[in-house]
Specification:
- There is one protein chain.
- The chain has helices at residues 9-35, 44-49, 52-68, 71-85, 89-112, 123-139, 144-161, 166-178, 183-193, 201-206, 221-244.
- The radius of gyration is 19 Å and the shape is globular.
- The protein has one domain (9-244).
- It has 245 residues and is mainly α.
- Helix 1 (9-35) runs antiparallel to helix 3 and helix 4 runs parallel beside helix 6.
- It contains eleven helices and no strands.
- InterPro entries: TraX.
- It comes from Hominiventricola aquisgranensis.
- Keywords: Membrane, Transmembrane, Transmembrane helix.
């Protein structure tokens, strides 16, 4: 079979997780273990002894966080792809829900330095709510009014639960689903909706290169990568770097 031009799903997911890992390096190592707790963190000695490093680390963090922004729209897009192609939506939702729970402690440790931080939930919860939204739109809603009411309810739930990216993140999944048959409009609308997190729109525009092929990809790798890499950042920030520095 001849391979289509463009990027398959596996390549796009790899791009997204690499960008995400870069982003979380800034959020975890540079922010949680250095910039935000420089006065109590073992790594804070670096800034106390060398004040000029503060501006350098702060600039590096800002650049790194910007690099990671385009990852989220790609993950949202593949929630829609997974929903449209899965044989069992219920099992798909259960998987996302389970990994949301599995990932919460590693997320809180890496980003906030505590095993339980109720003020912010990991992105798997956002993806889970987004899946519930488009499942409702396809299989439950019977009118535009009910669709809007359901979308509003799920977006409000995202805000109440303080999930990553909040209502905008859930709405982005809904937009990608509604415009799934119009790829150019889908990418454009996604870019506009994600413009509050520059340069996140680049992730939406990257979807224009998707060739519709799944590609060869390990089923569980993209699920497990999220909690595992966050926990590794926690280990690095808590024990490895302080011992090294």
């Amino acid at each position: 079979m001849k391979t289509k031009r463009g990027l398959n799903g596996c390549v796009l997911k790899w791009i997204a997780i690499i960008l995400m890992a870069i982003d979380h390096f800034g959020a975890s190592i540079l922010e949680n273990f250095l910039l935000n707790v420089w006065d109590v963190s073992p790594l804070g000695d670096l800034l106390r002894d060398y004040p000029d490093y503060w501006d350098l680390v702060l600039m590096a963090d800002r650049v790194i966080r910007k690099i990671g922004r385009p990852a989220f729209p790609v993950f949202c897009f593949f929630i829609v792809e997974g929903f449209c192609h899965t044989r069992n939506v219920k099992n798909y939702a259960v998987r996302l829900g389970i990994f949301a729970l599995i990932s919460e402690v590693p997320f809180d440790l890496a980003i906030f330095g505590t095993p339980f931080h109720w003020g912010h939930q990991n992105v798997f919860f956002t993806l889970f709510l987004g899946l519930l939204l488009i499942w409702y739109l396809r299989d439950v809603s019977t009118s535009t009014e009910w669709s809007l009411a359901g979308a509003l309810a799920v977006c409000c739930a995202a805000e109440v639960l303080h999930v990553d990216y909040g209502a905008f993140g859930v709405a982005l999944i809904g937009v990608y689903y509604i415009l799934r048959e119009l790829p150019v409009l889908q990418a454009g609308a996604g870019a506009i909706l994600s413009a509050w997190e520059m340069p996140a729109p680049l992730g939406s525009l990257l979807l224009l290169f998707y060739n519709g092929e799944r590609g060869r990809q390990p089923k569980w790798f993209f699920y497990w990568f999220y909690p595992v890499h966050l926990f590794l950042y926690y280990v690095i920030g808590t024990w490895v770097l302080p011992a090294w520095i």
